[in-house]
Design brief:
34% helix, 4-stranded mixed beta sheet, two-stranded parallel ribbon, Nucleotidyltransferase, domain 5, 137 residues
């Protein structure tokens, strides 16, 4: 009586399908991240080596028109300017009951610090976290 040996189980695992999936996901996220533009206004931001990746909910942009000596304020990259006294109520309504209310300030390089501080004071009065946006060096 001959006893047959069972075939050995192959313990190898092919990773080629897994690498294909990871590669496709990488391409997908790269393409979709370039489509998202949080700042629709063309601003020259100050440069900084420190970048914060906190997720902001609301953005306030300050555009400086040096030829006229005026400023315009924009909420969430909207091209329609907002008066300064309308900024606080709009931020309050947009942030509402957020757990971690945060907004970012996008200011031109030429905007006087006084204008930026005025917007930061809105965050302090309402106990919001404020992020000053910069461009990487």
């Amino acid at each position: 009586m001959a006893i047959k040996q069972k075939g050995k189980v192959d313990a190898s695992f092919s990773m080629s399908s897994m690498t294909d999936i990871v590669f496709l996901l990488l391409i997908f996220f790269l393409v979709t991240s370039t489509l998202i533009n949080p700042n629709a206004l063309k601003l020259l931001l100050p440069k900084s080596t420190n970048q914060i990746s906190a997720k902001q909910i609301v953005t306030v942009s300050i555009k400086h028109y040096q030829d006229k000596g005026t400023f315009s304020f924009h909420i969430n990259g909207n091209t329609t300017p907002v008066r300064f006294d309308e900024i606080e109520p709009q931020i309050q309504s947009l942030l509402g009951e957020s757990e971690d209310p945060t907004f970012s300030i996008y200011a031109d390089k030429s905007v006087p610090i006084e204008q930026v501080v005025n917007i930061m004071n809105i965050g302090k009065r309402n106990k919001y976290k404020v992020i000053l946006a910069t461009s990487p060096e």
